[in-house]
Specification:
It holds the Pfam family ArgoMid. InterPro entries: ArgoL1, Argonaute_Mid_dom, PAZ_dom, PAZ_dom_sf, Piwi, Piwi_ago-like, RNaseH-like_sf, RNaseH_sf. This is Ribonuclease H-like domain-containing protein. The protein is built from 21 helices and 28 strands. With about 725 residues, the protein is α+β, with helices and mostly antiparallel strands. The longest helix is centred in the first third of the chain and has 21 residues.
Length: about 725
C-alpha cells in the first residue's frame, strides 16, 4: 500500500493554517524514518534512540550494562521544523557465556553460592526459573553446535529438566538425552545437571554452549543497586551534556545519509544549539504557621530551609512506637533512644506536639510482619496512631512493601520507614526532613503559597479545586495492569468515578470543616502520563468524563474546567547562554525559566517550564499543553504548585498534584498482600494476560479508610526507588 505524502501539509501546519490530523502525523513519522535510516544501519537502536559501546558502564549486580546513545526527533515549530537531539541511555545485556549471565542474575538477589545452586534443575524454585525466563526471553545467543559450528538462536523459554534428563529423538536416530547426544559428538557437557534453553522451534541447548551477543537492549526491571548505577551513569552536568550532544551530530551523520539527500532534506547543524528566547518568572511567597520568626518567605534559587519556622498546620504525634527490624547487635537500644530524641526534637521544633517522650521500641524479625505489628500493639495495650520502622540498609523492597501494606492497607496506621544507615547518628537536617513527611502523613499542612502568589486558586469569589492525575504502565514483559491515580491505557479507565469521589470528598470537607457551602466554580486538572501524539485523544475522551463527574457529584452549575497536560518524557533541554541565565553551582537554567516560543507547537498553546533547580545532572523542563487560562496565569500557577510539595524544602520539577498522583501509582504494589500470588506473577506462567489482570483486580485492596484522606504516600526518594 502506497501513500503520497505532501510537504504542503506540514507547511500549512507549521504556519498555523491547519490543526493536527492524521496527515500531519503521517508526514512527521515519514521524516523521522528518513532521519533514522542511516544510524539504524550502524548502531543498536530503539525507535528514535541509537546506541554504541563507546561509552558504557556495568549496572551494579545485574548482568547488564548501560550504553550512552543519542535521541533524535523531528518536531514542528512555528514556521518550520527542527530536529530535537539529546543523549539517551540504553540498558544492554552484558555479552558473555549464558551460565555466567544466569549466575550473575541470581547473585543480584542471593549470595553467589546460592545462585549456583539455583541453576540446578532439581533445586531451582519454580518462580525463580520463571523470573529468569522472563529476563532472558527473546535474547539472541550464539550457540555452539555439536558439529563445531556457531549458530544464532533466540531464547524462547527455559527447560524444567537438565541436559542429562531432557530427552529427544534426533533425525534418523533413537531417543537420547541432550547430554548424551553432545557426548556422542565428543562435545562433553560440563554442567549436565543445570537447566537449558529452548528455542522457538523446540531445540534444547545447554546454557554453557550459548554466548550472549553484544548490543542487545534489555527492558528488564532493575534492582535498586542497578538503578543507582544507571542514574549515576546517566547523570551529566549541563556542559557535559551539551558536549555529548554535539558529538552526537557526527554519530547521527546527517550529511552522510543518502536517505536524507534523496529526500531533499537540508539539516543545518552548524548553529547547534539554537538560540531561543526565554524569561524567568518570580518564585511564589510561601506562608508558614503561627510562631514562625518569619511567617512569609520568598525562596531563592528554588530552595529554602526550616530554620525558625513552624508548620502551617502541625499535627500532634499522639500515641506512637518504634519497630526495629534488626537485631540489637546491629542497632543498639542506645542508638534507638538517640533516634527517638532526634525525631522528637525535630517535630517539636516545627510546631508538632509530642506528648509521649518515651515511646515503646521493640525488636522484631522481618518475617510475618503483620502478625508482629499486631502483637506489638497488644503489648502496648493500645493502638498506635503512628509507627516508626527502622529497616536494614540494602535492598529491602519486600520488607518495605510489607510494612506499607500492613500500615496503609490492613491496619490503617501511618508508618515512617527509616534506613538504619541514614538515621544512625543523623543530624538535625535529616530529622527535619523526616518531620516534613510525618506531619503530612498525619493530616497536617507544612506550608502554603501566599494568596498573593496564587490568585487563581485564592479568590474566595471563584472557589477552585486543583487535581492531578497520572498513569503508570508496567515494565515490558510484566503481566501486571496499568495503574491510574487521581491526586487521582493512556486513558484513565475509571476517571469519572475517581474524580466524582474526590469532588464529593472536597465538598464535604468545605461544608463540614470549613463551613463553606459555595460550590467550586473552577476545576484545574493537571494530567501526566500522556505521550505527545495522544494529547488531543486524551482531551477528547477525558474532558467529557470530568464534566460527567461534576454532574454526578451534584455540582450545579458545573465548574469551568481547565485541562493541562504535563509532560516530562520529552528530550527538550535548555542551556544558559550567559552566566546570569544559570545557577552558579549546577550550571542549570534558573528555576522559573519559561520557554513559550521558538520551540513550541505552531498551533496549540504550550510552554516549557523549569520548575526546579537541578542539583545533579541537567534540569529537564515540564512541557505543558494548556486549554483554558491565559499564558501568564497558568504558567504562574504551575510554577507556584512546584513549591508546595510536602516532603521537601525545594521546588520540584512538576506541579505537586501531578507528583502526588505519580507517587500513588508507584506504590501500587503495596495494595497487594505480600504473601499472595499477585505480587509474584511474571511472564511464562500458564495464565492468559486477561486471566492475570482479573487476578490482580480481585486481589487489589484499597487504602484503609483511616488513611484514605491522609497523604499516606509521603516517602523519601531512596525508599520510593526501593518500593
Amino acid at each position: 500500500m502506497e501513500k503520497v505524502l505532501r510537504a504542503a501539509v506540514l507547511r500549512r501546519y507549521t504556519t498555523g493554517q491547519q490543526s493536527w490530523d492524521e496527515n500531519v502525523s503521517t508526514a512527521l513519522t515519514a521524516l523521522n524514518i528518513v532521519l533514522r535510516m542511516e544510524p539504524s544501519l550502524k548502531h543498536t537502536f530503539r525507535v528514535r534512540s541509537f546506541y554504541n559501546d563507546k561509552i558504557k558502564a556495568p549496572l551494579g549486580n545485574m548482568p547488564l550494562e548501560a550504553w550512552q546513545g543519542y535521541f533524535q526527533s523531528v518536531r514542528p515549530v512555528l514556521n518550520g521544523l527542527i530536529v530535537n537531539i539529546d543523549i539517551s541511555t540504553g540498558v544492554m545485556f552484558k555479552p558473555g557465556n549464558l551460565v555466567e549471565t544466569c549466575v550473575e542474575f541470581f547473585s543480584g538477589y542471593r549470595r553467589r553460592e546460592e545462585a549456583n545452586k539455583w541453576l540446578k534443575a532439581q533445586s531451582i524454585p519454580v518462580m525463580q526459573r520463571r523470573r529468569l525466563q522472563t529476563f532472558l526471553f527473546g535474547v539472541k545467543v550464539e550457540a555452539q553446535t555439536v558439529a563445531g559450528k556457531k549458530k544464532m538462536v533466540t531464547i524462547h523459554k527455559l527447560t524444567e529438566r537438565d541436559a542429562a534428563s531432557t530427552m529427544f529423538t534426533p533425525t534418523g536416530g533413537s531417543q537420547t538425552s541432550v547430554a548424551q547426544y553432545c557426548a556422542q559428538a565428543n562435545q562433553q557437557v560440563q554442567l549436565p545437571n543445570i537447566i537449558c534453553i529452548q528455542t522457538p522451534k523446540g531445540a534444547v541447548i545447554p546454557l554453557e554452549r550459548c554466548y550472549i551477543v553484544p548490543g542487545q537492549l534489555s527492558r528488564a526491571e532493575l534492582t535498586p543497586d542497578a538503578t543507582r548505577a544507571m542514574v549515576e551513569f546517566a547523570t551529566k552536568k549541563p556542559d557535559q551534556r551539551l558536549s555529548a550532544i554535539k558529538t552526537g551530530i557526527q554519530v547521527l551523520a546527517y550529511g552522510q545519509s543518502r536517505y536524507v539527500r534523496d529526500f531533499g532534506l537540508d539539516i543545518k547543524t552548524g548553529s547547534l544549539p539554537m538560540d531561543n528566547p526565554a524569561r524567568v518568572i518570580n518564585p511564589p511567597d510561601l506562608r508558614y504557621g503561627q510562631g514562625s520568626k518569619q511567617a512569609t518567605i520568598r525562596p531563592k534559587d528554588g530552595a529554602w530551609n526550616l530554620v525558625d519556622k513552624k508548620f502551617t498546620k502541625p499535627m500532634p504525634l499522639g500515641t506512637w512506637m518504634v519497630v526495629i527490624f534488626l537485631p540489637p547487635n546491629r542497632f543498639s537500644s542506645n542508638e534507638a533512644k538517640e533516634t527517638i530524641i532526634g525525631l522528637i526534637k525535630a517535630c517539636e521544633t516545627v510546631g508538632m506536639q509530642v506528648p509521649e517522650k518515651q515511646p515503646l521500641f521493640v525488636y522484631k524479625n522481618p518475617q510475618d510482619i503483620v502478625d508482629k505489628l499486631r502483637s506489638t500493639e497488644s503489648e502496648r495495650k493500645t493502638i498506635p496512631t503512628f509507627i516508626v520502622c527502622i529497616l536494614p540498609d540494602g535492598s529491602n523492597a519486600d520488607l518495605y512493601t510489607a510494612v506499607k501494606h500492613c500500615g496503609d492497607i490492613k491496619r490503617g496506621v501511618a508508618t515512617q520507614c527509616l534506613r538504619v544507615g541514614k538515621c544512625r547518628g543523623a543530624k538535625a537536617q535529616y530529622w527535619a526532613n523526616v518531620a516534613l513527611k510525618i506531619n503530612a502523613k498525619l493530616g497536617g499542612v507544612n506550608v502554603i503559597p501566599d494568596p498573593s502568589s496564587a490568585p487563581i486558586i485564592s479568590d474566595p469569589k471563584q472557589p477552585t479545586i486543583v487535581m492531578g492525575a497520572d498513569v503508570m504502565h508496567p515494565a515490558p514483559g510484566s503481566q501486571t495492569p496499568s495503574y491510574a491515580a487521581v491526586g487521582g491505557s493512556e486513558m484513565i479507565k475509571d476517571l469519572r468515578t475517581m474524580a466524582k469521589d474526590l469532588l464529593m470528598a472536597y465538598m464535604v470537607y468545605r461544608r463540614d470543616v470549613e463551613n463553606i457551602k459555595t460550590l467550586p466554580k473552577r476545576l484545574i486538572f493537571f494530567r501526566d502520563g500522556v505521550s505527545e501524539g495522544e494529547f488531543q485523544r486524551v482531551l477528547d475522551q477525558e474532558l467529557p468524563l470530568l464534566q460527567d463527574a461534576c454532574k454526578d457529584a451534584g455540582m450545579n452549575p458545573p465548574p469551568k474546567i481547565t485541562f493541562v497536560i504535563v509532560g516530562k518524557r520529552h528530550h527538550m533541554r535548555g542551556f544558559g547562554k550567559n552566566d546570569k541565565d544559570k545557577d552558579f553551582r549546577s550550571g542549570n537554567l534558573l528555576p522559573g525559566t519559561v520557554v513559550d516560543q521558538g520551540v513550541t507547537n505552531p498551533v496549540e498553546f504550550d510552554f516549557y517550564l523549569y520548575g526546579h533547580g537541578g542539583i545533579l545532572g541537567t534540569s529537564k523542563p515540564m512541557h505543558c499543553n494548556d486549554f483554558g487560562f491565559s499564558a501568564d496565569a497558568i504558567q504562574a500557577l504551575a510554577y507556584t504548585l512546584c513549591y508546595t510539595y510536602a516532603r521537601t524544602t525545594r521546588s520540584v520539577s512538576i506541579p505537586t498534584p501531578v507528583y502526588y498522583a505519580h507517587i500513588v501509582c508507584s506504590r501500587a504494589k503495596t495494595h497487594y498482600d505480600p504473601q499472595g500470588t499477585a505480587s509474584s506473577v511474571v511472564s511464562g506462567g500458564t495464565q492468559t494476560r486477561e486471566e492475570t489482570l482479573d487476578s490482580h483486580r480481585g486481589q487489589y485492596r484499597p487504602v484503609h479508610e483511616a488513611q484514605a484522606k491522609r497523604m499516606y504516600f509521603m516517602v523519601s526518594n531512596d525508599l520510593l526507588r526501593m518500593s
